[in-house]
Amino acid sequence: MTDILEATGQKQLTQQERFEKTRTLVFTESSEACRQLAKEVADLIEKRRKENRKVVLGLATGSTPVPFYRQLVRLHKKGLSFSNVITFNLDEYYGLTQDHPESYYRFMHDQLFDHIDIPKENINIPDGTVSLDEVYDYCHGYERAIVEAGGLDLQILGIGRTGHIGFNEPGSAVDSPTRMITLDRVTRADAAADFLGIANVPRSAITMGVGTIMKADRIVLMAWGGNKASIVRDAVEGPVTDQISASFLQQHEKAIFLVDSAAATRLTRFQYPWLVGSVNWTAPMIKRAVIRLAEEVGSPILKLTDEDYNEHGVGELLASTNTEAYHVNIDVFNEVQHTITGWPGGKKDTENEPRPERAKPVQKNVLVLCPEPSDAIVGMAGTIDRLVEQGHNVRLVVQTSGNLRVRDVSARNFAGVILEMAVLAQGKGWENQRQYADSILEELEEKGEFGIDSALVRRLKGLILRGEARDAGDVCGLEDSDRISFLDLPFYETGRYRRFRLSEEDIEVMKKILNEVKPHSIFATGHVGDPSSMQALCFRAFFEAWEDCKDQAWRKDCYVWLYRGKDSDVSTHEIDMAVPMSPDQLEQKREAIRKFQSITGDEFDSPFDNQQIAKEYDKLGMAEYEAIEAFERWT
Ligand code: F6R
Question: CATH 3.40.50.10320 spans which residues of the chain?
Fold first, then answer.
């Protein structure tokens, strides 16, 4: 086991890692990395205590460090004291008071400080409420306080999809100090769910600068989940640029990235292993190499030449299989071609054709798992429509109520309509409804713009979203209400984003639905992405239930297809089934997405992503479609 803190100082990389300019350790699971890091930090704290010295930690917020903080709390319960620890947090949203549910002050206390014995005066978090004319001096003071504490011994970082560390958005200079910055659109979109809508996300923040971070003695950046894979590769392997502030860590003497296997997938050693050593040329590896080659050369697969293979580092593929480009091209072309199907549930009487889905049984039980009500519509509305049209028993199962994403205004409007109806009915028989609407309005008023919704309000919001999901389902052919089930998984109902925890009850609910539907095909999402995200937890609930069902007869003949959510992209080589859409079908998908009026988010980008995939297929030499919904087969 590599010692993480020791490894921050080591630059020698193996041949496999030669593209990585910052040392990167890959762990199977984030929990494993966090357990080890927490143990090492605990050892450092203990060692310093014995020497009568302090430890100064720079801390981050967001989903990434949550499992690390849980480990620190666990170690504290076993006797570790934080009395000799001083902390400085990276950042705070500008304009949020300490008691705001999304303030980083509140986050840090909920996740860590309230559960350990750190002295209050040792905690430093930028104050988001200093007045504009005081910000400059305030930030200066924050820098000075770090210096006076002896400088940061260890800085913990996450990374945003813009490549930011702290809130150092693109354009931040390597020597930038603690200051006020404007948040990037992508960063605000990522925080939209926490703030119940992008409009509520603050536009600016106070953050330690890149320069402040770079002065730390050691730096550990953590990244979990497939949605961080591209930015991790850019930061670790790409050029140092102020467009990706995490890339500056390449210039730090003792910086390290800790990533889980999903966040590591785009590093050269995993994505293109033939570029860093000899590989065993399996069929999936050949497909990946040829698609990459075609994309790099900008040529359709069938036009790639022996020279193209040689000049782009894939000559070994031809040599080791003792063949010419022409033959490899045809094999891979056919393989990609066979991923395309207008029959996502399989096509009758085609047993002997290479198709993604089995021909039999002709009529399948298809279970579509949808973490929040809009996810499956965004990911696969066109495919749902085809499955229904082709006669399969499709069941759309919405795992959570999604009520946290519904805007207050929708609940308020609903209550308003009830009150007007009560007036029209002149009160007769409408007393209960009026009382209900009054309670909704009062409870909304009481919690204010950012407060936590009462159970009553959450229930109403969930019901509003159910209506929208039914409307959207209707557009995709799921008119019959039995075809949509709402599970309202318990973990979601008691939590907030980033703070959910699965329980046995969630798994039981999932098991029940699996055994009820007895599916031949399951469509699921959440397999990539931050492990603490809602979609990932829904996938985990499914996975555990699936494992528990391993002796069931239906499971022996069940395919699981994975669709992508709105914040995770798919590489062409990963696609096992590509379901094409005509312009009309794409328009229909847009219409289905538009039914989700009560929520905010980036749902509308999805048809654009579907068009992107179609363009990539077209460039490889496949037929030119308007759009494609893509699936991976889970094995
Ligand atoms: C938080 C911070 C940010 C986050 C980054 C990733 O204090 O400074 O840089 O680390 O936005 O956020 P998560 O972990 O939520 O993906």
Answer: 365-403+462-634
